[in-house]
Amino acid sequence: xxxxxxxxxxxxxxxxxxxxxxxxxxxxxxxxxxxxxxxxxxxxxxxxxxxxxxxxxxxxxxxxxxxxxxxxxxxxxxxxxxxxxxxxxxxxxxxxxxxxxxxxxxxxxxxxxxxxxxxxxxxxxxxxxxxxxxxxxxxxxxxxxxxxx
Length: 149
Known about the structure:
Elements: E1 4-6, H1 10-13, E2 21-30, E3 34-45, E4 47-49, H2 52-55, E5 65-77, E6 82-87, E7 90-98, H3 111-115, E8 122-132, E9 135-147
Parallel strand pairs: 1-3, 4-5, 7-9
Antiparallel strand pairs: 2-3, 5-6, 5-8, 6-7, 8-9
């Protein structure tokens, strides 16, 4: 899920950008819905926007996060969000697309059904460069946004 974080000046100081994965500590507050107030950034993981073609040149790593986007051409496991993503002449298998960083167990399931994501939609996802059986993969994807076709 997501929540609104109010009054944190560390975002600009730390050079954070849209898509970075952050952990904040603060107090639960309420104003037009739940939010976090008086927070501090406990940790963050930088995320680099990149094309699929550029991603395919990167080394396999579980600690470097990228943001890619493209058209879904095939969904191979809708429960866990396994699918193929194409951008221009490049494509990659995305192994897992989950609703948020750190989602586990049943919370990882059914994102595509819950959001109505289907073949042909444009999807933006965050994850790491992986490989399986000699084939490139984008691993442990984290849903960022999509545009329905």
